[in-house]
Each structure stands twice: as C-alpha cells, then as structure tokens.
Design brief:
The complex is a heterodimer of chains A (133) and B (634). Helices cover 71% and strands 0% of the residues of chain A. Chain A has one domain: Four Helix Bundle (Hemerythrin (Met), subunit A) (Up-down Bundle). Chain A has 133 residues and is mainly α. Chain A starts with 9 loop residues before the first helix and ends with a helix. Chain B folds into three domains: 127 residues, Winged helix-like DNA-binding domain superfamily/Winged helix DNA-binding domain (Arc Repressor Mutant, subunit A, Orthogonal Bundle); 97 residues, no CATH class; 306 residues, Response regulator (Rossmann fold, 3-Layer(aba) Sandwich), CATH 3.40.50. Chain B is flat. In chain B, helix 13 packs parallel to helix 14 and helix 17 crosses helix 22. In chain B, helix 14 links the parallel strand 7 and strand 8. Chain B is built from 25 helices and nine strands. Classes of the chains: A mainly alpha (133), B mainly alpha (634). At the A-B interface, helix 1, helix 2 and helix 3 of A face helix 3 and helix 12 of B.
Chain lengths: 133, 634
C-alpha cells in the first residue's frame, strides 16, 4: 500500500482494501473510491451554491454528509475540512462554542471548502495512480 | 422633501419619494453580464427574465438579498408592474416559453428620471394582489408552508414546556413521597424518644419517691421501685413538656386523601415508565409488559403526536440539534471531560483474535439490518458484515428501518443504526422499534461519542455504540458480544468479556479507581440491567435515611457509578450491592429512574424501606428470565 501521507488513515483505508478479492482487480474498493470523488464533486457544487445564498443550514448538512463518507474511507484531511463546514454551518466553532457572526462563519466555511477542494484533487491524483484508473 | 432631479444619482438620494426596490431593479438591469438571464426588452419598455432559475439563485440574492422568485414578483406587483402576457398560439412569445416579462408604464430603459414616479400602490387590497391568477398555486403553497412552519415551531415550544412541566412534576411527586417518608420516620423517632424520656422521668421520680417514703437506706431499695416505675405510677404526672410533645405528634394526622392521590400519581408515572420507548431497561427485561398499564398520563416520547422534527432540515435530522434534544424527556448526567478525551481510542480496542476464514456462527447466519444514509458507509459496512458471514440488509434512514421492523419484527438479529439521518433519526427510530422488538440489539453507529450523547442512546433503548468511522474489528466485537448465543464457539466471545467483568467487579467494589470509559462502552449491554436495578436498589432519596453511611461516602466517579454498579451486579448475578459509594448512580439520574421505575411492587418495597443491599431472588429471576440466554448475560 502506498503512502498517502496524512491525507489518509492507513488503518481504515487498508481494511477496505483487504475486502478486495484480488489485488489486481480491486473491484470493491475502487468503485467506492471513485464514487467518493464523484460524490465530493457534487457536494462541492452544492456547497458553492449554498455559499452564494448564505445558506448556513444547507452547508452544515452538506458538510456532515461528506464528512461521513470521507471518514469511513479514512480520508482524514477532507473529513476535517468537512467538520469545520458542518460546525460553522451550525454557527459554532470547532470546539462547539457559539459563533453568532454569520460573516465569520461564511468566511471559515469558504476557507475550509477551498481546502477540501484542493485536498480532494490532490488525493484524487494519488488514488488515480494507485488504482490505475 | 427634495425635488426629484433628473440625475439618477441624485434621484437615488431623493428620500422617501424614490423607491429602493425600483432603483435596485434598474441597477440590476444595467449590468450587461446578466444579459442572458435578465435584461431590458428590445424597445426598453419592459424587462424580461429569461432564465428563471438562474435569476432566482444568483441574481436575486445579490440584489435583493433573497432567493424567492415569487416574492420578487409580489414586490413588482406592489409597484404596479404587470406581467406582459403573450398569446403563445400566435407564436408571440418572443423570448421563449417560461420567460417572464414585466412592464410598468414609467419603468423604461431610457427614462431613469422617471423612476421616482413609480410608487407603491396603496396597500388597500392586500389579500388580493392582481396577479393572484398568475401564481395561485405557488403562493398558496408558500403561505401554507409558512404557516405550517410557524405551527411547527409553536408546537415544539409548547412541547418543550409540556415536557419540562411533566418532568418537574415527576420530580416533585417523587420528592414529596420521600419527604413524607422522612417525616414519618422522624415522628416515629420522636415518639421513641418521648417514651424513653418518660421512662427515665418515671424512674427518677420513683426512686426519689421510694427514697423519701422508706427511710431504710438499703441501696437495693433504690433499684427495686425503679423497675416498677415502668408501670405508670398513676399519681405522678409525666413532665408537661413530654405530654405536650406527644399531643402535638398525635395531633398531626396525615391527609390520607392527598396521600392516596400522590400514591396514584406516582404509580401512574411508574407504569408509564414501563413503556419500551422510554427505557431500554424495562423493555428488554420486562418482556411481558404489565397488562393494561394505566394510560392516564401520556408517555411524552412514544406518543407520536409529539414527534415534531426540527424544521427545515433536509439532509439529516440530528437528534442533538437544539430544536430536538430539548424535547427529549430525561435529564442527562453530567459529562466527565476526562472521559471524553479517552473515548475514541478505547472504543475500538485492538482485536484479540482474528477470525480470518471460516464461519463464526453455529447455525443460521445472523441477519443484520444496517441503517445508514451514507452510501459509502453503507457499502463498507455491508461488505464487512458479509465478510463475517452475516446476511445484511440496509435501510437508508430511520423510517425505512422502522418499516422493515414493522413488517417482521423477528427477521433481524441485530441492527446497526446511524444517528443523524434524514426523515427519521436513529434515536427516534430506535425508540419506535423498541415498541415492537424489545430484545433486539440496536447498536448506535456514530461519530458523536460524547458521554452525554451515549447516555442518550442508551436511555432510548440502544444497547451499544460503535464509533465511526467503524472498523471491521469493532464490528466483530459487537457481533460477538451481542450475538453470543449464535456463535459457533461462544467461548471466543466469553474470554474477553469475562476478564472484563473480573476487572470491573473489583472496580465496582469500594475502591473506585478510575474506571475510565471502556467499561461503559464494552459492557454497554448492561446498561439495560442497570436501568432495571437502580430503581430497586437505590432511589437516592431512600438511601439518605436508611443508610446514612452512604451519604458520607463520597463518590468520586460520580457519573461512572451507574455503569459500575450495573456491571457489578449483572456480571455475577448474586452479587448485589456492597456498601460502596461508587454504586450510587448520579443523582438526577436516580430521580429519573425512580420516576421510570419498575412496577408498583418496586415502589412498595422502596417505601417499606427495604435495606439497600437486600437480595431479592424472586425479582432477580424475573428480571433475567426474558432475556436469559440472550446477549446480555455475560
């Protein structure tokens, strides 16, 4: 298994790879990962939209949604950004303190979203190499 | 009022004469980059919205701070703009279908100076905007949904109040009952004291008497009459203070009517507590619910009329959302911050044994229901489970899960349940499933592993927690623990658990030690047992006067106490309570449980003042019987 650095929790990700019947084929893990990137793409589009509309509630929901998938695959960096989006969408800081200023929330979310996007495309490149799709 | 000027800039300043809305509208139309979405018509006498959706989503928010096309149109109507109708049969829709053209005689591309003459119409016919026919459906729906939202919010707050009152009331009833007991005990004690003092007094008097009457100074004489003094002398009055005290005590007779009412209330509450939705314990253990339980009081949670969900959440309902969590009728124990930080690492302990190949199971494969809205999670979970030789079905949300259980409550051996899901969250789904399937193990799968969250899961009938992102080993551990009876080799599960029990029994004994988190997590099934036993053993109110030692016993691990005692007594069946302070559940917890407590006999026992440590074999057997052989017996 290649080193994905701190992008990926190897423990979690390797468990998923172990579920493949054959290492040559990877017919379980590969569609999962592919599917994740599709899902991420779609979610980012929705998040962009929600950002324009300043719809924090949607942002929080979308953040939660992508957080679940990324966490399950062990994609930690993306997960962390999603956590930020989810929290500030709830008008809360990462520690759960209240952040009533919507502008601050939107700014934090914008930053986290940009980071999530760049981390995702970076990881997608690495996964591409690994799965040779 | 400054006179309207022809210059647009000045016109914009023109105070109350000009309209913000109209100016914004004009400004928007000046932006050439919107040309494909919204623009002036060719002759500049009207404007056209070409792409409704884009307009609503991107341009409206920028210029009008909302994204509601209907309200934009309403606004236009207020300023007497009119929709331009085209006769489509004549091919006269110059901008295509689904476009909107609006006209106002004074709103023209070349007449900026005229903008100030566009005024709001008199607000008279508010109810009937002229374009009612243009938007009847969408407007009605909007109005309806707005009022529905408002109603929902209202119901929610009423519900909160109701639950609050309900909770307070339960507490008060419990409190009053216990105070009554204390008062009774104290009056009894006073009586004893008075009797004792009386005797002393008599003795003293008699001895003096005899000393005076018989002048013989044999020392023995002093004692003899003293013993006789137990019989009332008849001639000598007892001290007036003592007599008065006794009169006062006898003068206070309890209001038996009120007492009966209280008793009835408390019974009713307890009956209600039986409802499976409310307490995991009662549901799992009392597999035969008390027949014809009084339904005087509605159980606020299981009553579907009270199920109001947070408004506006589309992606997932978070049971811990502020709107929701406050509706849940229980008090949560304090969380211990130390425990929190430990939690994640201990939840999935490293596996002790790897079951590579070969089936874990003795006979039929376990049927697992995996409730998870996230596809990735669901696929990985299903894969792990089928790798462990289980058959898996998935449900995408709580509602689907409830439906599946309703179809056939017996079909599944275990449920893995996500918490935050659309339509129906996992906690509520569990509460509903508990009404038909009391013994089915339901495992929360969640990344919310704060102590109070977990406590909530347990209180609503969940049996265990699997932290997300879950691991294969974590899943195996859960299966082994909760499906022990289905294992080919039950020992393989037993090894781990029995060592745990041993460890916890010592921990549960007087030396509290730092129990940490692991016991609660790994032994979570026992929480059921705890729910069962705590009410019997220790409503803390009774504890306070029956065994004062208890009170002095500090309870350093206050919120762990509940778990520990559960582990302790369930593990070894016979071991009940040692007088260790650690076994006292958190105070508010105990109150809650007391309110929820088992059947009337339980209450009766408590009021009888049974010693805490009293073993009750008959009760014990009844408690265990239904789930015997099930996964909860370690």
């Amino acid at each position: 298994m290649p080193d994905f650095g701190d992008h990926v929790d190897n423990g979690i990700f390797s468990q998923i790879l172990e579920m493949d019947d054959s290492e040559a084929d990877r017919d379980f893990s590969m569609p999962l990962v592919l599917n994740f990137f599709e899902q991420a793409e779609e979610t980012f589009v929705k998040m962009d939209k929600a950002l324009i509309q300043r719809n924090l509630e949607d942002l929080s929901g979308l953040g939660h949604f992508l957080k679940g998938s990324s966490a399950t695959l062990g994609f930690n960096k993306i997960r962390d950004s999603c956590q930020i989006i989810q929290q500030y969408g709830h008008k809360q800081t990462i520690d759960g303190a209240s952040e009533p200023n919507e502008d601050v929330c939107l700014k934090k979310i914008t930053e986290a979203l940009n980071k999530a996007k760049s981390d995702t495309s970076h990881l997608e490149g690495k996964m591409k190499q690994f799965f040779k799709w | 009022m400054p006179p309207p000027e022809s210059d647009a800039g000045a016109g914009a300043q023109a105070g109350n004469n000009s309209s913000d809305f109209v100016r914004k509208l004009y400004k928007m139309l000046e932006d050439p980059s919107y040309n494909s979405v919204v623009r002036w018509s060719a002759d500049g006498t009207s404007f056209v919205v070409l792409e409704n959706e884009k307009f609503t989503k991107t341009i409206l928010p920028k210029h009008f701070k909302h994204s509601n096309f209907a309200s934009f149109v309403r606004q236009l109507n207020k300023y007497d703009f009119h929709k331009v109708r085209h006769n489509e049969e004549n091919g006269e829709a110059p901008y295509g279908r689904d476009t909107w053209e609006f006209r106002h005689p004074r709103f023209r591309a070349d007449r900026r100076d005229d903008l100030d003459n566009i005024r709001r119409k008199a607000p008279a016919p508010r109810k009937m905007p002229p374009t009612e026919d243009a938007f009847p459906a969408s407007q009605q729906i909007m109005v309806l949904s707005e009022s529905l939202n408002a109603t929902n919010v209202q119901i929610q707050s009423l519900q909160e109040q109701y639950l609050d009152l309900d909770r307070t009331n339960r507490l008060l009833v419990a409190e009053v009952l216990s105070l009554q007991k204390i008062v009774r005990a104290q009056s009894q004690a006073s009586n004893e004291l008075i009797t004792h003092l009386n005797n002393m007094e008599d003795r003293r008097r008699n001895s003096r008497h005899s000393a005076q009457s018989s002048h013989s100074s044999h020392s023995g004489n002093n004692y003899h009459p003293a013993t006789l003094g137990f019989l009332p002398d008849g001639t000598d009055e007892p001290a007036p203070e003592l007599r008065r005290a006794r009169e006062i005590l006898n003068g206070v007779s309890p209001d038996s009517q009120a007492d009966r009412e209280l008793e009835r209330l408390s019974m009713a509450y307890n009956q209600n507590g039986q409802s499976p939705a409310d307490s995991a314990g009662s549901s799992a253990m009392f597999a035969h619910p008390v027949p014809g339980g009084m339904n005087v009081m509605h159980d606020p949670f299981s009553d579907p009329r009270h199920m109001v969900y947070p408004v506006g959440q589309t992606t997932g309902i978070d049971p811990f959302h502020a709107d929701h969590i406050h509706n849940i009728p229980y008090s949560r124990p304090l969380s211990n911050p130390n425990v929190l930080t430990e939690a994640p690492s201990q939840i999935t302990p490293p596996p002790k044994d790897h079951q590579g190949g070969g089936s874990l199971w003795r006979g039929k494969k376990p049927q697992i229901l995996l409730v998870e809205d996230d596809k990735t999670c669901a696929r990985i979970g299903s894969k792990f489970l089928s790798h462990m030789d289980c058959s898996v079905e998935t449900a995408r949300d709580g509602l689907e899960a409830v439906e599946k259980i309703n179809q056939d409550a017996e079909r599944f051996d275990l449920i893995f349940m996500d918490i935050i899901m659309p339509h129906l969250d996992g906690v509520s789904a569990t509460a509903m499933i508990r009404m038909v399937a009391q013994n089915l193990p339901i495992i929360a799968m969640t990344s919310n592993i704060r102590q109070e969250d977990i406590t909530t899961y347990f209180q609503f009938g969940m049996n265990d927690v699997l932290a997300k992102p879950f691991t294969r080993d974590g899943m195996i551990r859960i299966l082994k623990k909760h499906l022990t009876r289905m294992l080919k080799d039950p020992q393989s599960a037993g090894v781990l658990d029995s060592t745990e029990i041993a460890g916890q029994q010592t921990a549960g004994a007087p030396g509290p030690g730092p129990p940490g988190y692991a016991p609660a997590m790994t032994m979570a099934g026992n929480v059921q047992v705890k729910m069962e036993q705590t009410p019997i053993q220790s409503p803390s109110t009774t504890a306070s006067w029956h065994s004062p030692g208890r009170l002095q016993n500090p309870s350093p691990n206050f919120d762990q106490g509940g778990y520990m005692s559960a582990v302790n007594s369930s593990g070894a069946g016979g071991v009940v309570l040692t007088p260790g302070g650690t076994q006292r559940p958190p105070q508010q917890y105990a109150n809650y449980i007391q309110a929820q407590a088992g059947q009337p006999p339980t209450l009766a026992r408590v009021s009888d003042g049974m010693p805490m440590g009293d073993d009750r074999p008959e009760k014990r057997q009844r408690l265990y019987a239904p789930s015997q052989g099930g996964p909860y017996v370690q």
